[in-house]
Amino acid sequence: MSGPLEGLKVLDIATIVAAPFAATLLADYGADVLKIEMPGQGDGVRAFPPFKDGKPLWWKSVNRNKKFATLDLRKPEGVALFKRMLPQFDVLIENFRPGTLDRWGLSKEVLWQIQPRLVILRATAFGQDGPYRDRPGFARIFEAMGGLTYITGEADGQPMHPGYPMGDAIGGLFGAVGALAALWKRAKDPDAPGEEIDLALTEAVFRLLDVLPIEFDQLGAVRSRIGNGNAYSAPAAVYRTRDDRWVTLAGSTNALFAANCRAIGRPDLIEDPRFSNNARRVEHSAELNAIFSQWCGGHTLDDVLAAFAAEEGTLAPIYAIDQIAADPQSLAREMITRVPDKDFGSVAMSNVVPRFAVDRAQLKTSAGDIGEDNREIYQRWLGLSDDELSLLQQRKVI
């Protein structure tokens, strides 16, 4: 691998999306990640659509840049192999219910006895303690109980989930950041002990909704849904163009408001006392949005974009994936890149974010088949013989 995390060893024994995504982000930045799955069944994401020729496409992306081995940690032989493997790793990522690894004989004390500097990232729905600690979870639960769903949707409509499991992606981001924070201390101090990170995925979603707690505490306000409106900026909404395309507009400063007004040929709005500053514009957001909506509705998308580009306004087209793929900026930045794939030759994936100028990170491979690296892991790393490997397979330990 290449990238700023080259040399970091990560053991991913997690399943589904959130925690494995944290490991994937570390892999994106150059870490050497080994993903361990249950023999036979593997990670549940292997059964998630969409499929092509029976192959799970989401799987290929969400677990890219990893090696793949199988191991049943519920069996004593599996635990023994895991313990032999552990000293080679810096980070362990898991998302079992609290206490599961302890029951398998892999408590943090045991793990740290084997690898004293190990960073253990534990991702669960609600954390390692509290009355909900044993509840299962998935993205929609994190989004619902973390506050995101309640504030999403039309004012007079039902709460809305995003069309993608953002709760998982948000959790994965916090997991990767947490692991890197823990590793920094160990990079500074060779004698620093291991760390245990308690990532509650519901709390990760809530953390992004920064203003909600202080707004409720100081104003007693319970923020609700406002559709595509904006609570802190106006005009700000989604508008339909004459050719049935969509654009979005925002911009809270006076300078940006002026540029947007000039773009629609309404410089008179700049001096209107109702719109003299951002706070007043928010008070009169319905009037402003009606003006901008009417103007956009009378022009094609190309004309709208050209007018705002000429005045350096803050409007953008709302893209579907085909438009992202064709956009000049996306092409120039290689937002989508091609990755080698043994089933389809190569496949398109989103590129590494952010970019590193010196220690350049890059994608190497899409996610592979279950246990495809077993021979390398168990024979080259651990020194098992062919007979030992065959016996472990027969007993379904690997």
Give a brief outline of the structure.
This protein is α/β, with parallel strands linked by helices. The protein has 17 helices and 13 strands.
Give a count of the beta strands, DSSP E runs of length 2 or more.
13
Q: Please report the distance between the alpha carbons of the first and last residues.
A: 26 Å
How helix-rich are the residues, as a percent range? 25-40%
Query: What summary fits the major beta sheet?
Result: 6 strands, parallel
Order of helical and strand elements: EHEEEHEHEHHEHHEHHEEHHHHEHHEEHH
Descriptive notes:
The chain has a six-stranded parallel sheet. A three-stranded antiparallel sheet has the order 9-10-11, covered by helices on one side. The protein has 17 helices and 13 strands. 38% of the residues lie in helices and 15% in strands. Strand 3 and strand 4 form a beta hairpin. The longest helix is centred in the middle third of the chain and has 23 residues. The mean pLDDT is 96. With 398 residues, it is α/β, with parallel strands linked by helices.
